[in-house]
Specification:
This protein has about 400 residues and is of the alpha+beta class. The chain is built from twelve helices and ten strands. The protein has helices spanning about 1-25, 110-115, 125-145, 150, 155-175, 190-255, 265-275, 275-290, 300-305, 305-355, 355-370, 390-400, and strands spanning about 25-30, 35-40, 45, 50-55, 60-65, 70-75, 85, 90-105, 175-180, 185-190. Strands 6, 7, 8, 9 and 10 form a five-stranded antiparallel beta sheet that branches. The chain has a three-stranded antiparallel beta sheet with strand order 3-2-5. A two-stranded antiparallel sheet has the order 1-4. Strand 2 and strand 3 form a beta hairpin. Helix 3 (about 125-145) runs antiparallel to helix 5 (about 155-175).
């Protein structure tokens, strides 16, 4: 049981040791900071330590942690510290400016060796106070090289800011610091000069506006010239196209052959009479006019033209129609004569048949079929017998024989 207790004690001591060692023998450097190690024997080490855990020996090593990010020197009216600069033309101007500054990368150990890492009574680092004094001195010296007009000229203001930044970094180099930019946020003159300055700026803007209008007018003139040239070119192209269209229309309508005789078929006759060389030349001319690649594809229709083909078609139609009408009239007349002849023969034979006794009997039979007697008969014959009962005589009367009967 005792060995187990000893092992447990050892484990507890090891765990406590592992837990205490990082706090006793290590120092943590947070992100956004840089560490400088100072030894009790060799002094400040010539390297900067980045974020992470760093080994130290208690009572032998000491770590000094400084911010590696930018700190801002702001000179604004809100804080009551706006810079007052006297310009080259003896005019007072109030400038709001911001300058971001940081420790130069890799130079934190040199800053510590110079003792500028100490804090002043107000809690700031000494290098921050020295940077502020240097910045104010440089800005007052360099910005005073501008006149009043230069402060509202963007180009000149940016130029003087670049020069001030260059000079400031030269002065901050001895402090192991560097500035990123000199940012002028606002510029304010005395009220009476502000009114005068507003008029000056208005005049400058009007000058720029007039210059811009002049450029617009010049560009408008170029555009008008281009538009006129384009319109002239379009008109020329349109005339060329109208001419081309007219040539195509003429070629389609009357062909490419020169035929003076307007008689239908004269163009085809002219085409048939052409020698092979002239025919080949006419086909090449038609192919060029119609935009065809192969002159052999030019048919006779291209050479003769639509109007000539229409005239030939119309002439052929009229001729064939006239011939057909003549044949039709002749055949109609012959048919009518034959029908009249047959009709006459038929009527002659019919009359002959009707004149015969049988024919007369047939006619009488048809006539008797159409006779209708009254439902009530009255007799007025002096003989006392109705005459209608004399059927033979009645039939002979119908037959037209004229013979009497009982």
């Amino acid at each position: 049981m005792k060995p187990l207790t000893n092992v447990a004690r050892i484990v507890v001591l090891v765990v406590l040791g592992l837990w205490m060692v990082p706090y006793v023998c290590c120092t943590r450097i947070d992100p956004g900071t840089v560490g400088v190690r100072r030894s009790a024997t060799s002094g400040v080490h010539d390297d900067d330590l980045g974020p992470g855990w760093r080994l130290r020996l208690p009572l032998f090593h000491k770590y000094i942690v400084l911010p590696s990010t930018y700190f801002f020197l702001d000179y604004t009216e809100d804080g009551g510290e706006a810079l007052q600069i006297r310009t080259k033309d003896n005019n007072n101007v109030f400038i709001e400016v911001s300058v971001p500054i940081r420790i130069r990368p890799g130079k934190a150990h040199a800053l510590v060796e110079a003792g500028n890492h100490m804090r002043d009574a107000d809690g700031r680092f000494r290098y921050q106070r020295l940077a502020e004094q240097t910045t104010v001195s440089v800005l007052r010296e360099e910005l005073a090289n501008l006149d009043s007009v230069g402060f509202y000229s963007t180009e000149r203001r940016l130029e003087i800011c670049a020069k001030a930044l260059e000079l400031l970094n030269k002065n901050l180099d001895s402090l192991n610091l560097e500035a990123q930019a000199v940012l002028i946020r606002s510029v304010r003159f005395r009220p009476e000069y502000e009114r005068q300055l507003g008029q000056i700026q208005l005049n400058e803007q009007n000058k720029l506006l007039d210059h811009a209008r002049e450029k617009v007018a010049a560009e408008q003139q170029k555009f008008d010239n281009y538009a006129q040239g384009t319109a002239a070119l379009a008109a020329a192209r349109e005339q060329d196209w109208i001419k081309r269209q007219s040539e195509l229309e003429r070629a389609y309508q009357i062909g490419v052959l020169e035929v003076e005789d307007p008689t239908p078929g004269a163009g085809r006759a002219r085409l048939a009479a052409l020698p092979p060389a002239e025919l080949a030349a006419a086909r090449e001319k038609a192919a060029k006019l119609f935009g065809l690649d192969d002159p052999a594809s030019v048919s006779d229709a291209y050479l003769i033209g639509i109007k000539n083909l229409q005239a030939e078609t119309l002439e052929y139609k009229n001729r064939v129609t006239a011939e057909a009408d003549a044949v039709s009239g002749r055949l109609r007349a012959e048919g009518e004569a034959m029908v009249a002849e047959v009709q006459g023969a038929y009527e002659t034979k019919l009359n002959a048949l009707l004149s015969s006794p049988g024919g007369r009997a047939y006619v009488a039979w048809q006539a008797a079929g159409n006779v209708t007697f009254a439902k009530q008969l009255t007799f007025s014959s002096h003989e006392g017998i109705p005459s209608v009962l004399r059927l033979r005589r009645f039939a002979e009367q119908f037959m037209g024989s004229g013979a009497g009967g009982r």
